[in-house]
């Protein structure tokens, strides 16, 4: 019997200053990557595409609607959720602290030079590093 790897989707969001919007995950039992800074997003529900999942997750987690999301790449979260995660990019110039956060502890903007000092899940760090190295 053939099984497919569970899927997830996250949004790599930048602003016009080149900063990254990161999400401080809850530090409680049952949360993958507790207390780490990561990207908004989550797992795909049955029958849902990664694009549908990231749109839903942005709305559920922070009531954030982005008019354009571009698929960037896929990366497996082999050390955490086990999901094959699709990364989407988008831009937004709003106040991270003003978003109504429904999951996690905090949202904040970070300059690329600060990313190395933050606890970030390895699968997300690889994509963030590739993105900033490419100067996209």
Number of continuous helical runs: 2
Strand content: 25-35%
Elements, N to C (H/E):
EEEEHEEEH
Structural class: alpha+beta
Q: For the record, give the distance between the C-alpha atoms at the N and C termini, rounded to a whole number.
A: 41 Å
Present the secondary structure layout:
Blueprint: E1 7-14, E2 20-24, E3 37-38, E4 40-43, H1 50-62, E5 70-76, E6 84-91, E7 106-110, H2 122-134
Parallel strand pairs: 1-6
Antiparallel strand pairs: 1-4, 2-3, 2-7, 5-6
Any descriptors?
136 residues; alpha+beta; three-stranded antiparallel β-sheet; globular
Short structural description:
With about 140 residues, the protein is of the alpha+beta class. Helix content is about 20%, strand content about 30%.
Walk me through this protein's architecture:
This protein is α+β, with helices and mostly antiparallel strands and 136 residues long. The chain is 19% helix and 29% strand. The chain has a four-stranded mixed sheet, with helices on both faces. The chain has a three-stranded antiparallel sheet with strand order 3-2-7, with no helix packed on it. The radius of gyration is 14 Å and the shape is globular. The relative contact order is 0.26.
């Amino acid at each position: 019997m053939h099984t497919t790897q569970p899927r997830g989707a996250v949004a790599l969001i930048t602003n016009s200053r080149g900063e990254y919007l990161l999400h401080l995950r809850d530090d409680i039992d049952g949360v993958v990557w507790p207390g780490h800074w990561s990207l908004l997003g989550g797992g795909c529900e049955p029958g849902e595409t990664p694009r549908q999942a990231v749109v839903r997750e942005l709305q559920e987690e922070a009531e954030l609607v982005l008019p354009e999301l571009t698929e960037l790449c896929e990366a497996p979260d082999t050390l955490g959720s086990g999901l094959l995660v699709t990364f989407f990019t988008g831009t937004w110039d709003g106040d991270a602290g003003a978003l109504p956060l429904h999951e996690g502890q905090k949202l904040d903007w970070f300059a690329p030079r600060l990313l190395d000092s933050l606890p970030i899940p390895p699968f997300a760090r690889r994509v963030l590093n590739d993105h900033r190295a490419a100067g996209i």
